[in-house]
Structure formats: structure tokens, C-alpha cells
Amino acid sequence: MRLSPYTVAIGVVAAVITFFPALTDNLYYQNMVILSLVFAISAAGLNVITGYTGYISLGQGAFLGIGAYVCAILSQHVDVSPFVWVPLAGVVAAAVAMLLGLVTFRSRGPSFVIITIAFLFLVQFVATNWTSLTNGSAGITMPLPDWDPALGNWPFHLALVVLLALSLVMSWWIRRTKFGMGLIAIREDEDKAGTIGVNAPVYKLLAFGASALFVGMAGAVYGYYLTFVDPIGMFTILVSVQIVLSLILGGRGTLFGPVLGAFIIEPVNAVANNEFGGGNVRLLLFGALLVLLVLLLPRGILPTVAGLPARRRTRGTAGLTGARLEIAERPPPPAAPAPSGKVLLEVKGLAKSFGGLRAVDGCSFTVPEGSITGLIGPNGSGKTTVFNLIGGSMEGDGGEIWLDGRRIDRLPPWSRAHLGLGRTFQTTRLFNEMTALENVVAPLRDFSFGQLRLDGVSGAEAAKAQELLDFVGMGAYRDHPAGQLSYGQQKLVELAQILVLDPRLILLDEPAGGINPTLIERMGSLIRELNADGKTFLLVEHNMPFVLGLCDPIRVLAQGRCLAEGTPQEIQRDPRVVEAYLGDDYLLESTNGGR
Amino acid sequence: MTSFLQILVLGILTGGVYALLASGLTLVFGVMRVINIAHGAFILTGAFLAYTLWRWSGLDPLLLTVVVAAVMFGVGWLVYLVALRPVRTAPITTTVLLTFGVALLLEGLMGVVWGNTSHSIRPSYADESFTLAGLYIPEVQVYGGLLALAVLAALYLIMQRTWLGRAIRASSVNEPGARLVGVSVSSVAAMTFALGVAGAGMGGSIMGMLYPFLPGSHYQWIARLLAIVVLGGLGSLPGAVVGALLIGVAEVMASSYIGPEWTTAVPFLVIFIVLLVRPQGLMGTRLREDVAPA
């Protein structure tokens, strides 16, 4: 077996860290490594929600403090080694983190950052004022270590090494499973993740729990190591800042970045404290580091270093954008199956207002099973809003939506996806940082807790995804990040993506919008082929030849209502439709156009 | 009843100062979608500047607030150019960390220059009070509160009546749209940031007459101001005023009826409750999230 230099280097570093107290008796350096371990564990935990899931928290230090307090309080009352309480401290911290995670059901982005700051201060407030439990601002003094003094810091050190190893194993495991893939989908585009079946709330709750579990345990060891726990020391925001700094410096979303960052920042911090008197120097140091990092090295060390060879390799070569899309010759699609006469989707009296504007106002229509139903109408007639209501990205003010005899208008988007509803967006929404293949593998056809531990991309799924990418003609691009693909290519990948859901009803929002004529034709034949295969379509489109050639029946929306419905021929002749949408000159143009 | 009225009046006067302090935070968020964590530190910088000017000149600190506002306008402009302009359109993660860094830098600088001890600005009338119909209101509270409300009224007029104000509002409602009709969003952002910092400085010099302060108090201030703008609706100026008055009154009441230590908890509780129950705040609009950012 040959080991790569990378593996050897990591092994050597791990060995040095593990046996560090054997290398030096100097307590100053031992202390530095112990604190670095504490911060590395905290940053690795933060990485799960910030790096993978995309929620930035300025309150991560709170879990360290909560763990320390759990251990300190229990040690006061029960006369056993405080180490006994370490696992429990982790569980309590994880439970509190999951409560914080509940908050993300309602607030994201800016609101969430604010909440994390408030959370940290609130926890500090409780620790200060719940005097009967925490002894208030006076703090709790813990028992001194009861082991042979010759052992020195070994028990603390080894406990933290084990916790760091466990956090890294968890982090590695999360990254390679369905769970991690769902988290990254949430980071890239949370609403989109919902529409492809990712049950975001459960994923996020578990991520929050995971982000605090080992941090709480490390907090317990940390408190015992300090032998003193108080609100100021435990819940100062500077601890949280140091954790965030470690993560950003090392590289968020990477496995070893948080560790690297922590082992750089803590020694620098120690020097600032000991050589320059701490206090203001430490503030200036952290402040300057944060500003400089964000401005000069926003991705952190590891991703930047990892990106260098790729940049050197691709320098001077043409970008992807120039590449031509190869369109395979395909057999003509078989004749469409005879419609079953069954109604697959029924929308009844749907309503949605934005302020005073009634975007959808009592809209009712049906989509027959096996059909390619077109939804047309002037701009602002409410087509995309109707799509958002059917897909569940938005909640309506009234009305009902039935999918195959089941009412779905109160279900969250992922449940609708699990029931067989797939949708694309007007402006494509792929997960830009993932490859085309990962994008296609990301959708989930159902939800179970067992699913979370499955491999992110299993062999069978990769094969299936490859097949779908080949089907839409994008097989050659499987390993390209989706963000680098052209708009038309992204549309095709997005179609392949929702096909993984094996949807019964596919909602396409302007499938022919903004792409070239060859691709429009390709899109049309893909839709026909899938339809022949039994898929039902509902599509919004402004390209009239495309709609009239492909769709039957057609529903016409105007001012949020269904104005008319019928076959393409009926629609073209309907005077109301001509007036509201097609325009008087429409028939003339279409005759001249030779269609 | 008198005591209730007293609390109410005190709360409103305090709220007026809070409103001025919060105005910059909410305007900057509106235009730039940046949560300026350094806002509290700018307030304290204003307070320390006012302190030094007052000790040096012996002038009435209320007059000095204008000087402080001018100086802080320049500081804000500079900070925008150096630190914020490069990341103006970056995601919130980036800008929050950046402004946090600025806050720490300012805290450290203040600590070096003025020391980490408690300061307060005490004009000759610091211990005087008005008594009116049985109410007992400290003079500084009255002057400070009224000055803050006057500045806010001026700010409101700027927002409603001037080209700059319309440009700020346009950029905050629809940035690409504002750009299309000829608003240089970057200059508007610079102007907004500088104005916000000037407001923070001016409010800070009033705050310095009402409460003792030290460099580390900026956390407490940013928490309180975040609660105010979240309650009023992120980005809304009238919302910030309403939020500030409510929080001002709530704090005075919590302190009188429950216990002084609860004053510090009010903002955090408000943040949690508002963001969970009504995330758009009292006067904010819900951002449409279904359309992908352009």
C-alpha cells in the first residue's frame, strides 16, 4: 500500500498533537495546545452549520459554556469525577442547539445572525441571574483533578484529542452521506432544496444538534481544566469570534480547515495575551484579522491552496462557455398514449395577494393525466405565482390544490415532491457549487431517518444520474460545477434533476425561455418523449409556436383567473384570449410565419 | 398613576435617543443589506469624542454633538471606502464578519486611547430636573430626547424631500431598478453609511450625557439597537422610531416593575419573539424569496 504525502503529513501532525505533552514539560505550550484543541472542536462543530448548511453563527461559544456549566453544576452536587458528566454535557448542548435550530424555520440570513448574537447574550444573562443554579456572576469553582500529579495535563489533553477525533469523524461522515448533501443543497438554495424533496427542517435540526454535541463535551473538559466557570469567561463573545475566525481562516466546508485555523489563531492569541498584555491588543488583533481575512482570503487557507493547482492547470485554456452542446440523434418519440381521462392535478379557487395586489384571484383549472397542459397568459397574470402555490414555495390565501385525489395545499414543498411533483424555475436554480452529477443526485424521493446515513452518491444513483444526463444530452458535463454551465445547459440539467424524483407531474416554468432555437426544439422533443413515457406536464411558456405545437389542452390565465381553456385551435380562435393576450395581429403573424 | 406617567415620559424621551441611534443601522441595512455590527462601536466613538471635546473646550455638550456628527460622517465615509466597498454585494456572512471586525478594532482603539474605564459627560445641569404636574424629569433627558427627535425629523425630511433621500429609498427597495434610472448605488451606499455613522456619533454624544460608558459597552448597544430595528422591521426608518419608543418604554417598565437587571434582557427577548412570530417586524415588508437573486 502506498500512502500519499498528504496522508503521511496528516498522520504525523495527528501524532504530534496526540503525544504533545510527552514532547515538552513546558506548561505554557501544553496549555496552548489544550486551548487550540478546544477551539478546533468548536470550529469543527460550527463548520457543520456554517460550512455545510450555510448558517453563520456568532454564538457558537455558548455551547462551550453550556457544556462547562452542566459539568460544573453536576460536579457540585454529585461526588464523582467530572469526566463522568462529559457525555451528558454534550447532549444538553446539542438539545439547546436544536432549540436554536427551530428558530431557523422562520428566520434566515440576516435575522439568523442577529438571533445567534441575542442567543449568546441571553444564555449569559441566564447564567448571571439564575443564581440558585449557577451561583451568578461569582461563578462555580470545580474540584481540582484527583489523579496522580505526575499525570499532569494528560487526562485533559487526551480527552480533548478523542473529542476532536470524534468531531472530525462525524464531520467526514456527514459530508459523504445524503445528510451532508442535503445540508449543502440547503446552503446553496434552501427553497429550491425543498422543491426537490429535501426535508429542510429535519436536516437543519440534526445539523444544529451535531454542531454542538462535541462542543458541549469539550466545554465540560475545558471547564474542568480551568477549574472555574463563570458567565463572563464562558460566554464572552470573543470566544465565539475566535471560533468563527478559526473556521474562516482554515476554510469553511473543509474537513481539516477548522483544525488548522484553530491551531493558528490560538497561539497568536496566546502571544497577544502574554507578550502584549492582552485586552486591547487582543481586540485589535482579532478585529484586524477578521477584516483582513474577509477582504483578502475570504475562502480560507485550505480551499485557496487547493484551488491553486486547478488554476494553474486551466490557465490559458478556453472556458466552458465556448463548448458546444452535442445533440445526439434520437429516434422520433412514439405516439403519445391516449389520455386516461383522469384528472391528475386540480386547482380550485386559488387565491394569493401581495399587499393590495391580487396576483391570483380565484383561479381554477385541471391538468388531465398523461397530457402536456400549457398555461399561458400575459405578464403579471399570475402564472409563476400559481406555480409557486402548486409547488409549495409559497402559501396561498385560499383555495385548494389536489394531486391525484390528495389535497396538497397545506403540505410543505418536500412532501409534494415526494408525492410526485417536480418543478423547474423560470431562472434556473441549480446548486452552483455542486457538479452537474451531484445536482442530479441531490433530489430525494422520500424521507426517512435511515436515508440520512446512506452514501451521498451511491453507485446505482450515479449510474442513474449519468443516464438522465445522457438523456438530456449533458452527460459530458457531469463533473463540471453547475455554476459554470451556460443558461441553456443549466435548464437541461435542471430537467434531469427533477426527473430523479420520478415525478408524475412536471411543472416547467418557461422551458423555452432564453435559449437558442436548436435547444428549444431539443427541449420540445424531450418533453414529448417523457410524455410518451407516461409523465404529465404543466408548462408556462410565452413562445406561442412552441406551446401551440406541444400542448393540449391549454389554460389561459388573465388577472389571476383562468380566462379560457381548450385545445390549441379553440384557444387561438377565442376572442377573449385574442383580446387579453395574443393580440389582434396574432393570426396574421402566424400565417406569415409559415406555421 | 403619576409614577406610570413618569415612566411613560421617561421611556419616550429615552426612546427618542434610541431612535436616533438606530436610524443609521436600519438605513444601512435597507440600502446595503449589511448588518453593521460596528454600529454600537461607532456610537461609543462618538461619545468618547464628545467627552474629549467637552473636557477640552468646556462648551455645552449639546452644541458639541454637531461637531461630533461632522467628524463621524468623515469616519464613516472612510470606513466605507476602505472596508465595505470591496464587499458591498457579498453575502451577509461576509459583511457581518467584516463589520464585527471593525467593531473589535474600534473597541481596541478606544481602549488604547481612552482606557477601559467608565466615562460620563456631565454638563453643569446634569443633576437638575424639571418638575411638572408631579412628574420629575431630569433636564438632560429632556434636552437629549428633544434634540434626538429634532435630528430624526430632519433626517425624515431629507429622506422624503431631497434627491438623496429618494435615491436612498429607491436603492433600498430595488437596487437594480435604482441603477437603471441613473442612481449610482455605490455612491448612495457610501453616503448612507456615512450618514448612518454620523447619526450614531451624534446619538452617541447625547447617550454619553445620559449613561456612563466604556469601550466594551458597544455590545450592549448593538444588541439593543438590533432589537429595535428587528422590531420595527429591518430597513424601515419609521419602523425604527416606533421600535425605539416601544423598547425605551419597555425597558423603563421592566426596570421599575420587575427589576433593574431585566433591562438588559429586554432586547434579547424582543429579538427572539419578533423574529419567531413576525419576522418582518412591525413596519417592514417581507422579502420575496421565491425569485432567485439576479
Structure description:
The complex is a heterodimer of chains A (595) and B (294). With 595 residues, chain A is α/β, with parallel strands linked by helices. Helices cover 56% and strands 11% of the residues of chain A. Chain A is built from 26 helices and 12 strands. In chain A, strands 8-9-10-5-11-12 form a 6-stranded mixed β-sheet, with helices on both faces. Chain A has a 4-stranded antiparallel β-sheet with strand order 4-3-6-7, with helices on one face. A two-stranded antiparallel ribbon of chain A has the order 1-2. The radius of gyration of chain A is 29 Å and the shape is elongated. Chain B is an all-alpha fold. Chain B has one domain (2-216). Chain B contains 11 helices and 2 strands. Chain B has a two-stranded antiparallel sheet with strand order 1-2. In chain B, helix 9 (218-232) runs parallel beside helix 11 (265-277). Chain B is globular, with a radius of gyration of 19 Å. The model of chain B is unreliable at 287-294 (pLDDT under 50). Chains A and B meet through helix 6, helix 13 and helix 15 of A and helix 4, helix 9 and helix 11 of B.
Structural topology:
The complex is a heterodimer of chains A (595) and B (294).
Chain A: H1 5-18, H2 20-23, H3 27-52, H4 61-77, H5 86-103, H6 109-129, H7 131-134, E1 140-141, H8 154-176, H9 178-188, H10 190-195, H11 200-226, E2 228-229, H12 231-235, H13 237-250, H14 257-275, H15 280-296, H16 301-314, E3 343-354, E4 357-368, E5 372-376, H17 383-391, E6 398-403, E7 406-407, H18 413-418, E8 421-423, H19 436-441, H20 459-471, H21 487-499, E9 505-509, H22 517-532, E10 536-540, H23 544-550, E11 554-558, E12 561-566, H24 568-573, H25 575-582, H26 586-592
Chain B: H1 2-32, H2 39-57, H3 61-84, H4 92-114, E1 129-132, E2 135-138, H5 139-161, H6 163-173, H7 175-180, H8 185-210, H9 218-232, H10 237-258, H11 265-277
Antiparallel strand pairs in B: 1-2
Helix pairs in contact in B: 1-5, 1-6, 1-8, 1-9, 1-10, 2-3, 2-4, 2-8, 2-9, 3-8, 5-6, 5-8, 6-8, 9-10, 9-11
Membrane topology (chain B): Multi-pass membrane protein
Main location (chain B): membrane
Transmembrane segments (chain B): 6-30, 37-56, 62-83, 95-115, 135-159, 180-201, 221-250, 262-281
